[in-house]
């Protein structure tokens, strides 16, 4: 069912309507949900998410964190699920984005400066990913070795940030603060002075909703929801473009893709950089939501979480990453305390053992049973070699 | 994947050179020598269990640090709670970790137990073995590692009582650390002999080189994998046992070994003894030098850079270089 809609994307004969053209861009064999019923369901869920804080009360506040982390999940889904690069380093870009936002916004605490800090944080994640990716991919580092290098990068960042307690680690007016973290960031107030500014955090708006009454609404929730929506749809367009097909080809068989004349290194580098930028943006939002950041984002435990979300939800599906991020985080915060980590680890172990494809693709398969199936290609892991020699 | 475990006079010569350097160094510049050799031992001991499991089974055990944790805790607890003498307690640590590894292999890596249950209840296999599925094995063992760290925190609390460091000190350097250097040499020798001089070792190397052919020749590869994993785990447990007196006993102690272990395996390549010992000899001094001069962070950065350089210029790791050299020498003579 997926193949037809992808084929019609390149057939502009009957000058389709704007909506159809948009749908053609969003759909393809690389994403789940290419049917009318999917989009109706999608719109319903979206409407539910928009209405949620109006009826959900204070849970909406917590929910904005899940949406922020959803961006981090998406970044790993792009990098691992679509490009086949298992990265334990998404939290490095996340953390660097968060710290960059902190440093820039403390030094320029005006709305314009803070807007710049958001951009700087996102770019910092992307630039660091591009640097690390350049040295890895063009340096011939492949497969699990990439994973090991990203894992080691996480540990290196943790060691680095933990020893920045001294006053020599102050950038402008922003002390990095070692284990104590970096407090004193200005509140997320975006815009340009004189034109338009708006404070997104700690600025609950009174809103009258029919049937519910007056309720307070957190604008940050809507900011993160909008960003997550845009990121999800943009990534859908990306992975269904020609470039996305190259990425999937790299994931399935790197050597063969190279033989076909594609620049495998560049494709991986672009995907890794985009993933880094997305993770950086997620980190920026995380820091601005908490108005605080500390080195715990570089801990091994935190680095696991994106891998957990994406493997539980289905790494080859962007939707799975978002759904599982929200689901697992909700679960994790509600279990709380000591057992949360055990539950997360057990969930990861079970999902990789029993349902290696992830939950969302599994549900999709159950729902669309009967429809002609796209032949399943073996995952690259099964054929990966231990050593290149 | 080639085996580089064959005997050669160059190998013996380099072992002698390392020993002679130690002997000379301990007379002229004892502190520096001890520090560097201890750093080498640390890298080798951190990596050896991981290297065996990775090199032979193609499984990356991200719970490696937690296997070390099991060894360290079992040793410490049997020494403090049961009052066993330290060497016996260390033996207990090794045994417990090896058994634990056996269970992990049967339940998770090979999927034998779940599949056995699956065959009897729903009539089909539940999971696929993790052999040679590198990325999946990483994710699965990562989940295991989370469960183990938090599990031991729940059961044993944030820390347990430590055992004292045995022996005194020489030239201001603890004797126990010098003993560790000797023990490391012994471990390497034992692993070398196990893989080159015994029937079991031959079976393991045959399985590693070509599983299908090995199977056709009547080798029970399943069993070989199982025992190999148990040996690798046991060695990780031994590392934990050896470092139990030196580290503070907390659930996250395994993390301290991760960077060194993974970098050593990346740099060393597929061969267990040659790769691990040579990468230890390369990385130990780098780590010691940078950590002592510029702090732990610089040491780790140096290791990371070394790993990336090694991957760039030595695709097969040090093992590949040694293989090349040996081929050239054999071809020339």
Question: Would you mind describing this structure in some detail?
Answer:
The complex is a heterodimer of chains A (389) and B (333). Chain A is mainly alpha-helical. Chain A has one domain (32-370). Chain A has 15 helices and six strands. A two-stranded antiparallel sheet of chain A has the order 1-2. Chain A has a two-stranded antiparallel ribbon with strand order 3-4. In chain A, a hairpin with a 2-residue loop joins strand 1 and strand 2 (174-175). The two termini of chain A are 42 Å apart. Mean pLDDT of chain A is 81; it is low at 1-13 and 372-389. Chain B has helices spanning 9-28, 30-57, 64-80, 86-109, 112-121, 134-156, 175-197, 199-209, 211-216, 221-243, 255-268, 273-294, 296-313, 317-332; strands at 169-170, 173-174. Chain B has one domain: ABC transporter involved in vitamin B12 uptake, BtuC (Orthogonal Bundle), CATH 1.10.3470. Chain B is globular, with a radius of gyration of 20 Å. Chain B has 14 helices and two strands; from the N terminus they run ααααααββαααααααα. In chain B, helix 4 runs antiparallel to helix 10. Chain B is mainly alpha-helical. The model of chain B is unreliable at 1-7 (pLDDT under 50). Chain B has a two-stranded antiparallel sheet with strand order 1-2. The interface between A and B is large, with 48 and 59 residues.
